[in-house]
Amino acid sequence: MKAANSSPNSKTVLPENEKQEAVQEPPMFSTTKIKSKRLSFIPLVFLIYFQVSGGPYGTESIVGSGGPLFAILGFLLFPVIWSIPEALVTAELATAFPGNGGFVIWTHQAFGPFWGFLVGFWKFLSAVINLSSYPVLCIDYIDPILPTSFSPLPHYLVISVSTMLLSVLNFIGLPTVGYAAISLGVLSYLPFLVISVFAIPKIDPSKWAVLGQKGRKKEWPLFFNSLFWNLNCWDNVSTLVVEGVKKPSKTLPKAFLSAGLLTCLTSLIPMLAATGAMSLDLDDWVDGFYTVVGEKIVGKRFKKWVRIGAFLSGIGVYQSQLSSCSYQLSGMAELGLLPKLFGVRSKRFNTPWLGIMIPTVISVLVSYMNFRHVTSLVNVLNSLGMLVELSAFIWLRVKFPGVERPFKIPITRLRWLIAVLFIPFGFLVYVICVGTKIIYLVIAVLTAVGIIWYFCMKIFQAAMWLDFNHVVKKLADYEDFGGYYERILK
Questions:
Q1: CA pair distance 20, 71, nearest whole angstrom
Q2: Neighbours of 406 (CB within 10 A)
Q3: Residue 2 in domain
Q4: Which UniProt keywords apply (predicted)?
């Protein structure tokens, strides 16, 4: 907002609404000059698609744990009660409080730097543990079809090298990652289109209404964890809005809608085809079962194409989630929640190369560990962060009612906003409560490490500032420097 020209002694009286806007205009949190091209609409849609799901791979356990009917209902209802509210909250806050930190900025503005750091820490851990699983899954999927000359290489050496190679595209820039996501999305889904077409003559719709299997109990924690894992993380794109999205207030809602439809349809279509065309034995429906589905419906040789599709999908998910991680670290460095070193940029591509290397190296190290319940661990960490994020959304409506929101959820009354978010809140609490003791222990230890890191960093920063002030005051004792220092203070 431009102020009228005035002398130092003149007073300009602003209308009441303009006073509020002047006081509540949010600062820009990204200090990086944008040099690279931004994402166009289609690459952005596929980038969100891979950050959220990446296709039907990993949805088999939803059928196995809950039965066909509940699995189908899950993909029809869960987006309405969870994905849409999360996407709308992300669209409003990402455009009202723009910056590379994304969700870290929202909680920082609402509850202060400590909670901003803690949410960033939880979400980063969730993302990097999730990242570590994809190179492993990629290798596991294609290992049976690799030449025998490849097999003598140590398994973890292959995972380490492949993880490093998968990070290369992120160094070049977001547009490259976005266009790669389009190719990976189309190619990874082609096997499922073939399976769905071949399954049409064999489909028996009555099989879709099967509630379960006699003598087999439903595994609701696995069902909801798998569903949550496949339809979550819409807020990840908030870390890319400033540098990656053109006209976010118009583009983000459309991109979320398109990515949401793409995610649900790409999971539902092969699920309907497979459950309707095959004899149901829910014990068989575990992760990776779609390779067997491809073999039984299309043919024995088609199994390897499903494996290749899973490999390409894993690459797409890894690339998109790594991009979100790297810009999150850069944003936290700009906020002062991490050392400035974490925001170092490549001179050629202007990408946060250290922010890319850190999650890459951590994901390699984590991939050497044997986590039995990775999905649950990732979900609980992410849910803790999301509880604070949704609370920050409510509080920011109260704290900064006059901030310009280029995109705003069309609900003004606070009690209606709370009512809309009541089910998402309840579901997040449920996901946290179904965790196991070992998961709670791991999260407690990691959280303690993060809190210690935060306060040590604050103490170090304070010590550095006090030491700097002491040196400057000593220099100010000299006659030639004292006047200069006094002028600086004024």
A1: 49
A2: 15
A3: no
A4: Cell membrane, Membrane, Symport, Transmembrane, Transmembrane helix, Transport
Return the ∠ at Cα 127 (arms to 123 and 133), rounded to 5°.
150
Tokens at 350, concatenated: 């202007």
Task: Yes or no: say if 118 and 453 are a contact pair by the CB < 8 Å rule.
Answer: no
Overall residue count recorded for the chain in this entry? 490
pLDDT in tens, 223-274: 998 899 889 899 999 998 888 888 888 899 999 999 999 999 999 999 999 9
Q: What is the CATH number of the domain that holds 190?
A: 1.20.1740.10
Cα torsion for 203, 215, 211, 201, to the nearest 10°?
0
Total count of domains within the chain: 1
Q: Half-sphere exposure of residue 245, counting CA atoms within 13 Å on the CB side?
A: 28
Backbone angles phi, psi at 245, to 5 degrees: -120, 130
What's the pTM?
A: 0.84
Cα gap 286→303, rounded to integer Å: 16
> Look-up: residue for tokens 């993060």?
450
Q: Is 397 domain-assigned? A: yes
State pLDDT tens for residues 168-220.
888 888 888 999 999 999 999 999 999 999 999 999 999 999 888 887 888 99
| Cα–Cα distance, 18 to 355 (Å, whole number) | 39
Burial class (CB in 10 A: 0-12, 13-18, 19+), 128: buried
Does residue 482 belong to any structural domain of this protein?
no
Contact 359, 131 (CB under 8 A): yes
